[in-house]
Specification:
The complex is a heterodimer.
Chain A: H1 2-18, E1 27-37, E2 40-42, E3 51-53, E4 59-76, E5 81-91, E6 99-106, E7 109-118, H2 131-135, E8 151-159, E9 162-172, E10 175-178, E11 181-183, E12 187-196, E13 200-207, H3 231-241, E14 245-250
Parallel strand pairs in A: 1-13
Antiparallel strand pairs in A: 1-2, 1-6, 3-4, 4-5, 4-7, 4-8, 7-12, 8-9, 10-11, 13-14
Chain B: H1 23-28, H2 42-52, H3 117-126, H4 135-143, H5 148-156, H6 163-175, H7 183-188, H8 197-206, H9 215-218, E1 231-232, H10 245-249, E2 258-259, H11 281-290, H12 314-325, H13 330-334
Antiparallel strand pairs in B: 1-2
Helix pairs in contact in B: 2-5, 2-6, 3-6, 8-12, 11-12
Classes of the chains: A mainly beta, B mainly alpha.
Chain lengths: 251, 342
């Protein structure tokens, strides 16, 4: 994460130089939710066709990818927070969720950081609270803690021990420890040190390969389906999810 | 809201009529989708109901929409395939009709080829194995009647009948076909005595990823439509006689995919699946439990394919079936507002 943060600061520095002489005006924010596999962009055309090799050596095809990003917040040098968006259900098959303009206009200047939540935090992860998410069949079963899915990554894989394609359902949400006992499982992502001087696109990048390798190498032969109620699997997803996201700013 | 002007009813305004929204729907779901160019009106709905039951829309005046969509059967029919006016037999089971104003994916029919309810309405009238008519003939027939010009005038402000207005009227009526008062709905609204222990057990199986795992495609207590309104290959066949969505998109990755039907009113909607291959709910449950068949486009949500499915016990199957039947809404099938007006 520190390496990526440095990259962002350098990038923003270059952007800032180019606009120093321009009259400062309010800035319109747009958002991109992009996906890649260790740097190779993933688009809808990859669904069901492109093969990816995970850290453990399985060959994957992705059929469906949906995930939830919430509380995207810019913080300025005074400590004021500007919410860019409350939540967005990102669907790789729906371009409207991948690139969208916000109606958020901010003054140019130095922002101490941007943060967002992968999934919902405990306060926001309220059962049945969001009609659009209910309608999208995005809820997380009450018996597993309720609220909503954080991610639905479905596909098939093969491996030396499974030559015929087998399904995997890498679904993430609240972790169930035992009956009626649950653990929060969202991830808060913070990126510090931004300078925004022109209309800006916030690109929230997801590197899917990280879900399968860092720090825990994921073995799809052992963990493929039925993971929602598997506490260890849910916690492992959380650990790997810490390095999945990065943020890049552009015009 | 005012209807378009016409030669004979200038200034006429139809009376707005909202869809009756079940409490659970208003609590949990987005508002129903009503096209801005076809608002619901009392007169439009009344006309649409007449047309839904009107055999003059068919080529020989013998079949109406209702000939294959019976209210008693939640607006489908109990036969596997429908028989058209020529005696030709279709290849798919008639879909039940309800809660279509909540189809936010805007895909209608098993393969999604209709992108609006209005578009869906137009299809059977010209289909040679269904009503086998032409739109010009259907319009001329209606125009020559004593009653329809006046009904169109009341609904749309013009007595000149068009295909567009016929489909709009029928779509308005179909949007009123709302089903949301099953025993399980009553349970979700707080009546703890509305369902049995077996039905609760069945619901838990439905929501358990390692047992039923039905909720990813078929809604839940949070999505009381009991469908996701999108397309899946649910492991029926290894090869496809009917490509389903793939025939519409031309994408081989869509072959064998059909729209998830709602699980409401299963007590009235047999046979099941897009081709009506299963006569009973037991057969459906057995399919997901041990009958799944692999194909290249099978949905990854279909688990344990090598073993044929999720391997439910007989008790689990019984409970799951009991729960599914608790989603049936007898009041919907007998609602006098939905019956033949003549």
């Amino acid at each position: 994460m520190k390496m990526k943060l440095l990259l962002i600061i350098i990038t923003i520095g270059l952007v800032s130089c180019s606009s120093d002489d321009e009259k400062a005006s309010d800035i319109l924010i747009s958002v991109t939710n992009s996906q890649n596999w260790d740097g190779e962009n993933i688009t809808v055309s990859d669904l069901g066709t492109t093969e990816f090799i995970d850290e453990n050596g399985e060959i994957l095809k992705i059929e469906r990818l949906r995930y939830l990003i919430s509380k995207v917040i810019l913080t300025n040098s005074n400590g004021d927070e500007i919410e860019i968006g409350s939540y967005k259900l990102v669907d790789l098959a729906d371009n409207n969720t991948l690139n969208y303009a916000t109606n958020i206009v901010i003054p140019p200047g130095t922002y101490t950081g941007i943060s967002f939540v992968y999934g919902f935090n405990e306060e926001d992860n309220t059962d049945q609270a969001y009609p659009d998410l209910n309608t999208a069949s995005w809820s997380w079963p009450e018996m597993l803690g309720g609220g909503y899915h954080f991610m639905q990554l479905d596909g098939t894989f093969t491996s030396p021990t499974n030559i015929s394609p087998l399904p995997f359902n890498y679904h993430n949400g609240t972790a169930r420890i035992s009956e009626g006992v649950f653990e929060q499982n969202f991830i808060r992502v913070n990126v510090d040190g931004l300078s925004i001087d022109s209309n800006t696109n916030i690109d929230i990048k997801m590197n899917l390969a990280e879900w399968f390798k860092n720090p825990k190498t994921w073995d799809l032969n052992l963990l493929n389906t039925g993971l929602m109620g598997n506490y260890d699997a849910q916690r492992k997803m959380n650990e790997n999810g810490q390095s999945v996201f990065s943020v890049y700013l552009g015009d | 809201m005012s209807c378009s002007s016409s030669d004979d009813t200038i200034g006429y305004q139809a009376i707005p009529k909202d869809i009756e929204i079940p409490q659970l729907f208003s609590d949990l779901l987005l508002p129903p989708l009503i096209p801005s160019d076809n608002p619901q009106t009392e007169e439009g709905i009344r006309l649409g109901r007449e047309l839904f039951y009107e055999p003059l829309l068919s080529g020989d005046g013998t079949q109406a929409c209702a000939s294959c969509h019976f209210s008693d059967y939640s607006f489908t029919e109990p036969t596997r395939f429908s028989t058209g006016i020529t005696g030709a037999i279709g290849t798919r089971n008639a879909m039940p009709l309800y809660n279509m104003a909540w189809n936010f994916e805007a895909n209608f029919l098993w393969d999604g080829r209709a992108k609006s309810l209005e578009e869906q309405v137009s299809d059977p009238i010209e289909n040679v194995i269904e009503m086998n008519n032409t739109w010009p003939n259907a319009i001329a027939t209606l125009q020559a009647t004593n009653n329809y010009p006046e009904l169109f005038s009341q609904a749309f402000g013009t007595s000149t009948i068009t295909k567009e207005l016929v489909t709009k009227a029928i779509a308005q009526f179909e949007r009123t076909l709302v089903s949301g008062n099953s025993r399980f709905d009553q349970y979700l609204l707080g009546d703890q005595n509305a369902i049995t222990v077996s039905e609760i057990n069945g619901f838990n199986i439905f929501m358990d990823e390692e047992r039923g795992d039905c909720f990813h495609c078929h809604g839940s207590n949070s999505n009381p439509l009991w469908t996701d309104n999108i397309f899946h290959n649910n492991g029926l066949d290894s090869f496809f006689d009917d490509l389903g969505l793939g025939a519409i998109t031309g994408d081989p990755l869509d072959n064998g995919k059909f729209k998830s039907p709602s699980l409401r009113n299963l007590a009235y909607t047999s046979p099941f699946m897009h081709d009506g291959r299963f006569e009973t709910l037991d057969e459906v449950i057995n399919h997901y439990s041990e009958g799944l068949v692999y194909s290249e486009t099978i949905d990854p949500l279909m688990k344990n394919i090598a073993q044929g499915g999720v391997q439910l016990t007989e008790n689990e199957k019984s409970d799951l079936k009991a729960f599914l039947l608790s989603l049936s809404d007898i009041g919907f099938t007998t609602n006098p507002e939905f019956q033949n007006p003549n």
